[in-house]
Amino acid sequence: MSFLSKLSNSVFGIFNKDTKEENKEVKEVLQEKLKIEEKVETEEKIEPKEEVKVLSEIDALKKELSSTFNNLTSMEEYWEAIVAIEAVATSCASSDKNFSDKEREKIKTFIQKINPNKEVPSSIKEKIDEIYVNPLPLNKAFLLAKDTKVEMSVFEDIIDVVMHTDGVKFEEKVVLQAWHDFKQSA
Fold first, then answer.
1. Which pLDDT score, from 0 to 100, does residue 17 have?
2. 132 in helix, strand or coil?
3. Nearest to residue 115, comparing CAs of 123, 107, 104?
4. Coiled-coil intervals in this record (predicted)?
């Protein structure tokens, strides 16, 4: 074997050895991360009893919002509140990059419950449709919410309901924490 062949084998052998060790380390880290993610997914899958809890929370929110809506002085304030509720709910639901059909349906059901007999003006419908297509980042949804006469705690409850719709995700927990941070800094 020539000197160049020996040198080449030793260099590539070292390279391959390092690469194998690095790959082993990367593989171990990825396996550990996967175990953690599986544990979180297992712990946070939605249970049938949690579905009942979500529905009861929606009913409680409906009652809370009914009294809030009675205190609004104009239809403009009412529709601003509806748009803000949609914005906060869709912002939370889309935070995990998977705005599921189940979440969309729960939000729409909730809005229908609090707005059963009112026809939605076309300008408001356009805003809501745009929010569903392009959910607002939480900071912008917060600003919309802040400009309404709806208590901020109601929006927190809405975030909580959305979080539990298809199982609590890490990103949704981050949304709730960010909401608390926005409230404190406002």
1. 47
2. helix
3. 107
4. 16-46
